[in-house]
Amino acid sequence: MRRPGSARPPFTASAFRRGFVAALPFIVSNGVGGVVMGVAYRGLGLDFTSAVLWSLVVYSGTAQAITLGLWATTPPIAAMVVACVATNARYLVLGAHLRQLFGDVSRRVMLPILALLADASWLMTVAEAERGRRDAGYLLGSGVPMAIGWIGGTALGHALPLAFVVVLLPTQWAGARSLLPWTVAAAVALVVAGTLGPSWAMLIGGGAGTLVSAVRGDA
Predict the structure, then answer these.
(1) What is each CA distance from 83 to 70, 78, 98, 147, 198, in whole angstroms?
(2) What is the C-alpha to C-alpha distance for residues 152 and 148, in angstroms, rounded to an integer?
(3) Which pTM value belongs to this model?
(4) Of 101, 118, 171, 185, which has the fewest CB atoms closer than 10 Å, so is most exposed?
(5) pLDDT under 70 in the chain at which residues?
């Protein structure tokens, strides 16, 4: 059954541009997470190509964080695959919903788009459809900045972790109020580095500092 408004092209360049612009902030937010992942992969001893491929092929912050905890001298591939499948099982539901929403779009077009599917791009696309602007171009457009941020951030974090920190910190300094969360982040990172290893130090330390800022209301 064709959906209302199906006479309209289901994939347009204008919707792609609209989705791309709407998702541009995710280049920064996903990029920060990608940098953390890149630093962690470097700490595990992965080379640059392998680190980027992990983020490109797996493309899931949750699954990749879980596999970090499973890493060993000889990575347990089977366990990692199971962990990735389990944590990403929700995409079966999201994909089924998109199949209903874009049933008139060919698989040849949809499958490459779904390779970049993220929770946020799905939510944004569904919201657009509810406004009467159902368009697979929007789904692709909103997914591209998210992928650029995550994969590009992983590459940057692996290749230039120290340079990134040097460039980033001055832009985040907000005066004396930054001293407490930064101190907490550094202290937690040092403790974590000595217990869980450097792979988790930046992630947990940064989270601790962010939590202090949030509790104090430094939004």
Answers:
(1) 9, 9, 24, 21, 22
(2) 5
(3) 0.70
(4) 171
(5) 1-9, 72-73, 160-178, 182, 189-190, 193-194, 197-203, 206, 217-219
Burial class (CB in 10 A: 0-12, 13-18, 19+), 57: exposed
Tens digit of each residue's pLDDT (9 = 90 or more) over 45-63: 888 899 999 999 999 988 8
Counting Cβ atoms within 10 Å, is residue 219 exposed (0-12), middle (13-18) or buried (19+)? exposed
Say if CB 81 and CB 89 are below 8 A apart. Answer: no
